[in-house]
Amino acid sequence: MDRKLLYKIVAIVVMSILLLVPLALIEGQIRERSQRQHEVQQNIAESAAGAQTLTGPIVVLRYRERQRETRVAPDTGKVTEHTRVLEHHRLIAPESLSIDGAAKVETRQRGIYQARLFHLDSQVASRFRFSAPVADANAELLDLQAMLVVGLSDPRGVTSDPEVTINGQRHRFASGKVDPEIMSLQPLTVALGRIEAGKPYDFSMAFPLHLTGTTRLAIAPVGDSNHIALKSAWPHPNFGGRFLPRERSVGAEGFSARWEISHLARNFDNALNPGSGEALSIDFINPVNVYLQSERAVKYGVLFIALTFAGFFLTEILRRSPIHPLQYLLVGLALAIFFLLLIAVSEHMPFANAYGLSAAACIGLIGWYLAGALGGWRQGAAFGSGLTGLYGVLFGVLRSEDNALLMGSLLLFLALGATMLATRRLDWYGLGRKTEEA
């Protein structure tokens, strides 16, 4: 009989390992659905506008410099003069930058998949103070031009033709060309014309910006002094980037946030490069990512199966109720099917409702099956109650990622404690003899 008990334990371990196969297949299906969701989001972004990064406004000074050089031939000592023309540019940061805006979030669907677009209505204002460059003693400045530049990662999201007011005069943006070394984003430009060398300039400018994008909005604080205030009715923002809000309020009615960033806290050159991350950002995230939570749930599938099989094994030992390995396998498959039901149903209803419906279906199926397999509804109801507790703990883990380790550790501790309590007076050496005598 001891040998039979050993065979039963080996069979249980083998079935637990075999059940990893359907769990892995289900996890792969979740990844495929998640990838499809990402592809739909990318497709909607290609049709509307992608994630947006706003850089600017800045002033770009372009000029050519004619330099005179005197050269002395080393052999003859003859003195000759040469000239060469060099092209330069200089970037002027605004003395102050103010952006005040409100964002509306729109959810677009393609089949069962969703993507979120934001529509930002904002007012951008800045002030510039600078002196035009002057030439050296042996040089002459040629064709000194100034241009106002605003960079966007996807100009298709500009839903209007904003008028730029500069010292009371109205201008319009154009799709200009800027050296990628200056700004890698798509530039919107306003030609300010010729300026005089060495002359100081002081002007203010403002324009409304109506911008559409997908999921993420980033703003580079290019000003020496940056004041940015944003609000939205979306209640689930994720503030990121290198600069967190100085003040923020998030509630069921939405959020409001305000940033105050000085030139001491930011690097101007990096702010012009979106790849450097020198920006503040807001992600209009989905608070319940059904694919991420389903994938996390599947990772606990092995724990579910192990605890359930442990309960079966204790029932066999304590109640002398033999359970066939095929019954173990069927119950394990029912536990695995729960995760497939979860991902399928959660695509059509809120995650909490999908979880409750899938759990109730699996608990009912397993409880009904065990009532017949173990010879009574009492035994089936007892296992169903235990599974209800397991599913409740898993739901808490999924809802509170920060406490996942704590809750998982407590679950394992309680399971071990219950096992030790139930078997504390069991004579493991005499188990085989007692079974044979019975």
Structure commentary:
The strands form two sheets. This protein has an eight-stranded mixed β-sheet, with helices on one face. Strands 1, 2, 5, 8, 10, 12 and 15 form a seven-stranded mixed β-sheet that branches. The C terminus is likely disordered. By secondary structure, the protein is of the alpha+beta class. 29% of the residues are buried.
What is this structure, in a nutshell?
It is built from 10 helices and 15 strands.
The total count of strands amounts to 15
Average per-residue pLDDT, rounded, comes to: 83
Shape: elongated
Strand content: 25-35%
Proportion of helical residues: 25-40%
Number of domains: 2
The DSSP helix count reads 10
Distance between the termini: 11 Å
Radius of gyration of CA atoms, rounded to a whole number: 34 Å
CATH architecture of the largest domain: Sandwich
The low-pLDDT segments are 434-438
CATH secondary-structure class of the largest domain:
Mainly Beta
Q: Going across the biggest sheet, name each strand in turn.
A: 7-6-9-4-3-11-14-13
By helix and strand content, what is the structural category?
alpha+beta
Main beta sheet strand tally, sense and closure: 8 strands, mixed
CATH topology of the largest domain: Immunoglobulin-like
H and E order: HHEEEEEEEEEEEEEEHEHHHHHHH
